[in-house]
């Protein structure tokens, strides 16, 4: 049963309960509906993308700050407005690895579903390798599935992704 996850002073976001104690992602599901992009959304992405990815106070992008603060709704809105989920902050941190270090499974999956590069490396290891090293098999399995999906998509398109 979905539970509401609320960011203070922000809209309510529905998400499925993730069993943190067991570390399982089995109850997390992708949204069952997808809204077609409107002209306004496309315009906002073109207009705001570069601004959202700029390094601001403390060297953070809007997205990296939202991920660090655990503001799921805000991070998702920044991505909708054109923020790049693969843009590093001034310290060289990626949103994907920030979410991993916080063990924020909902944020991790959202970033992967919204275009974060599963093959990016931190300290020479991919997300899957970090998850295996940290003893988090659920995250490792999800990352492995994302890797496989990206490879099969690239293969179907007749190109070879750089790794």
What would your notes on this structure say?
The longest helix is centred in the C-terminal third of the chain and has 20 residues, at 137-156. The chain has helices spanning 39-53, 62-69, 72-80, 95-102, 105-113, 127-133, 137-156, and strands at residues 3-6, 12-15. The chain has one domain: Ankyrin repeat-containing domain (Serine Threonine Protein Phosphatase 5, Tetratricopeptide repeat). The protein contains seven helices and two strands. Strands 1-2 form a two-stranded antiparallel ribbon. Helices cover 47% and strands 5% of the residues. It starts with a strand and ends in a 7-residue tail after the last helix. With 163 residues, it is mainly α.
Low-confidence stretches: 1-37
List the total number of helices.
7
Q: Identify the CATH class.
A: Mainly Alpha
The CATH architecture assignment turns out to be: Alpha Horseshoe
Largest sheet geometry: 2 strands, antiparallel
Oligomer: single chain
Task: Provide the structure class.
Answer: mainly alpha
- Cα shape: globular
């Amino acid at each position: 049963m979905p539970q509401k996850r609320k960011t203070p002073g922000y809209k309510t976001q529905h998400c499925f309960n993730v069993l943190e104690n067991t570390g399982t992602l089995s109850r997390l599901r992708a949204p069952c509906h997808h809204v077609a992009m409107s002209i306004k959304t496309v315009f906002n992405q073109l207009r705001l993308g570069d601004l959202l990815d700029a390094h601001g106070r403390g060297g953070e992008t809007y997205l990296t700050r939202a991920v660090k603060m655990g503001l799921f709704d805000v991070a998702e809105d920044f991505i909708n407005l054109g923020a790049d989920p693969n843009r590093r902050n001034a310290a060289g941190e990626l949103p994907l690895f920030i979410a991993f270090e916080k063990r924020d499974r909902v944020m991790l999956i959202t970033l992967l579903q919204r275009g974060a590069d599963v093959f990016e490396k931190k300290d020479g290891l991919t997300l899957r390798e970090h998850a295996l090293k940290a003893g988090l098999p659920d995250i490792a399995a999800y990352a492995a599935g994302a890797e496989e999906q990206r490879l099969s998509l690239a293969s179907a398109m007749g190109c070879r992704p750089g790794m």
